[in-house]
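User: I'm writing a tutorial on reading structure tokens. Could you give me a worked example: one chain, its sequence, then its tokens, then a sentence or two explaining what the tokens reveal?
Assistant: Sure. Here is the example chain.
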Amino acid sequence: MNDTNEGIPMDNAEWQKIVKTIPVVCDIAETTAEGVVRQVLKAVFEKNGLPMDKLDATASTVITHSQDSHGDIGFAAMHGFAILHGYVSGLEKLLAGIGVFQQGRSIDINAIDGSRTHILFVIVCSGPNHAGYRQFLARLCRCLISDDMVSRLASVSTRDDLEALLSSH
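And here are its predicted structure tokens:
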């Protein structure tokens, strides 16, 4: 699937369509980046009816794709949030999930600014040219520019809260 809309912002209808499918995991129990990615992806797989036997391979792909040349994933994290993504061949649509650490909990993934990660987005699609991938990523990043938005995201406790918050941007 080729991204024929490169450079064109994602319209509100397409944004809403994706936002409505994002599961929110608010009870992050894991203490490693790999564990958090796996926990968020499990919710994505369950919500979208994907075969669980592909979960570990997909989580490994996300971690591997998100690593820099030193094996750190912190380059994808700053200001308390991280966006990790990976590619899975054959995936027909872009899928995303969010993990929110609550009650002051966080994880250290060597963020570029030294901050601990409180909010972790995981995005998977068929590849960098997947229709809408770049537009979704750009719109998500625009949402996360605001410190207010990041602090409001940290208080999300349900998918409905997330949908309302992201829908306003």
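What the tokens reveal: Residues 1-5 have pLDDT under 50 and may be disordered. The first helix runs from residue 12 to 19.
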